[in-house]
């Protein structure tokens, strides 16, 4: 992947972000109608909190009313983020939504790019292109995929050097704790007690700050919202075609809510069990880091395609090895699989009319293909260098980019 092409893709992404800002702030300037999108929910929850009504964001009727007033649509997005993330959104609520979107999205995008560059070195262009559909999705919706993936990547970078500072990004992941399961497990099994203490201090500080800001009652409201969301998930009210979890795939295959959740639990335990086994066996760090990212994606039934930016972090650690061991066709096949995984929901949204998407989602194929992608990548990484048949000698050796 050439640098000029990468820069062109990033420039196109910035243009997309600016167009998205207009769609949030003044869609009529682009001759479009207002559509309730992810960052709308972020901004509305922040505004409610700024008005002293943070608890309202966690109640269906209040949040629905606020979203209808802001967007003029009948769509609804439940708010189930922990209070520390609500507090973060409150900090953006004083800005107009278009400006808030630009600040949040582009700053987290820059953070994500910086982390990938630090991990992948000269193979950075390949890492970002591998998850380009997820990048486009986050630039369009204003989701927090860049921020969460950047925090996980930062943890893995600092943890590689066995520094206590790794506890800072680990603690900040309290804003989306289910995606911290992988990095938390590795830290625990490696007995990195100073890192865990710092992470606990950071997380408790954020929890305490949000409790001080909103009162103890906010946690009851948050718990109620989570329980309601569980009911929505069981009834299939979420856009399952956008979800990357085993639960979503099993549900659309006809297993029902209970059967799908059982498979989700089995898959999560298997992923974390494999990660724990690899950690105790002393797997090479770059491979362990990639496995940590992959395992994190299988923990929650609420996994979405915008979370697949985490996949880019994992690939950044092992792309040099893959380019050494694989032929050109094998690299291309991995790229196409990654694009399918990251872009399935985006493609479905582009093909199926909005009013019929929920009813015609068919089988959600993200999770099965993600499993296959992880398995195929692991098989290729186990291959010795002399099996490689492609011509890619211009890429640096893995050890030169990501030391053990």
UniProtKB/TrEMBL annotation:
<feature type="transmembrane region" description="Helical">
    <location>
        <begin position="92"/>
        <end position="115"/>
    </location>
</feature>
<dbReference type="Pfam" id="PF09594">
    <property type="entry name" value="GT87"/>
</dbReference>
<keyword id="KW-0472">Membrane</keyword>
<protein>
    <submittedName>
        <fullName>DUF2029 domain-containing protein</fullName>
    </submittedName>
</protein>
<feature type="transmembrane region" description="Helical">
    <location>
        <begin position="127"/>
        <end position="158"/>
    </location>
</feature>
<keyword id="KW-0808">Transferase</keyword>
<dbReference type="InterPro" id="IPR018584">
    <property type="entry name" value="GT87"/>
</dbReference>
<feature type="transmembrane region" description="Helical">
    <location>
        <begin position="164"/>
        <end position="188"/>
    </location>
</feature>
<comment type="similarity">
    <text>Belongs to the glycosyltransferase 87 family.</text>
</comment>
<keyword id="KW-1133">Transmembrane helix</keyword>
<keyword id="KW-1003">Cell membrane</keyword>
<feature type="transmembrane region" description="Helical">
    <location>
        <begin position="308"/>
        <end position="324"/>
    </location>
</feature>
<keyword id="KW-0812">Transmembrane</keyword>
<feature type="transmembrane region" description="Helical">
    <location>
        <begin position="195"/>
        <end position="214"/>
    </location>
</feature>
<feature type="transmembrane region" description="Helical">
    <location>
        <begin position="246"/>
        <end position="272"/>
    </location>
</feature>
<feature type="transmembrane region" description="Helical">
    <location>
        <begin position="331"/>
        <end position="351"/>
    </location>
</feature>
């Amino acid at each position: 992947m050439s640098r000029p092409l990468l820069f062109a893709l990033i420039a196109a992404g910035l243009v997309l972000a600016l167009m998205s800002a207009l769609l949030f702030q003044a869609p009529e300037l682009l001759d479009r109608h207002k559509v309730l999108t992810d960052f709308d929910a972020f901004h509305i929850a922040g505004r409610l909190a700024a008005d002293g009504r943070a608890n309202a964001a966690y109640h269906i009727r209040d949040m629905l009313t606020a979203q209808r007033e802001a967007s003029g649509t009948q769509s609804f997005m439940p708010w189930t983020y922990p209070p520390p993330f609500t507090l973060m959104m409150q900090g953006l609520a004083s800005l107009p939504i278009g400006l808030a979107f630009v600040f949040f999205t582009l700053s987290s995008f820059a953070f994500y790019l910086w982390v990938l560059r630090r991990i992948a070195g000269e193979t950075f262009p390949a890492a970002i292109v591998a998850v380009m559909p997820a990048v486009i999705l986050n630039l369009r919706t204003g989701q927090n995929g860049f921020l969460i993936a950047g925090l996980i990547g930062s943890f893995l970078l600092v943890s590689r050097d066995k520094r206590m500072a790794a506890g800072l990004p680990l603690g900040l992941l309290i804003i989306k704790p289910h995606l911290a399961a992988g990095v938390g497990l590795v830290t625990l099994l490696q007995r990195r007690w100073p890192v865990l203490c710092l992470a606990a201090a950071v997380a408790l500080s954020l929890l305490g700050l949000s409790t001080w800001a909103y009162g103890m009652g906010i946690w009851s409201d948050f718990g109620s919202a989570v329980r309601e969301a569980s009911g929505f998930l069981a009834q299939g009210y979420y856009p399952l075609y956008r979800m990357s979890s085993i639960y979503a795939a099993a549900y659309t295959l006809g297993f029902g809510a209970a059967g799908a959740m059982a498979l989700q639990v089995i898959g999560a335990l298997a992923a974390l069990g494999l990660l724990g086994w690899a950690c105790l066996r002393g797997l090479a760090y770059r491979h362990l880091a990639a496995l940590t990212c992959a395992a994190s994606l299988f923990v929650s039934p609420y996994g979405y395609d915008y979370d697949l930016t985490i996949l880019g972090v994992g690939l950044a650690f092992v792309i040099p090895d893959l380019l050494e061991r694989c032929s050109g066709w094998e690299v291309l096949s991995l790229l196409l699989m990654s694009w399918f995984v990251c872009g399935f929901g985006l493609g479905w949204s582009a093909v199926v009319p909005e009013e019929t998407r929920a009813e015609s989602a068919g089988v959600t194929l993200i999770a099965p293909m993600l499993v296959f992608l992880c398995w195929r990548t692991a098989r290729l990484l186990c291959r010795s260098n002399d099996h490689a048949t492609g011509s890619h000698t211009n890429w640096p050796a893995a050890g030169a980019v990501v030391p053990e």
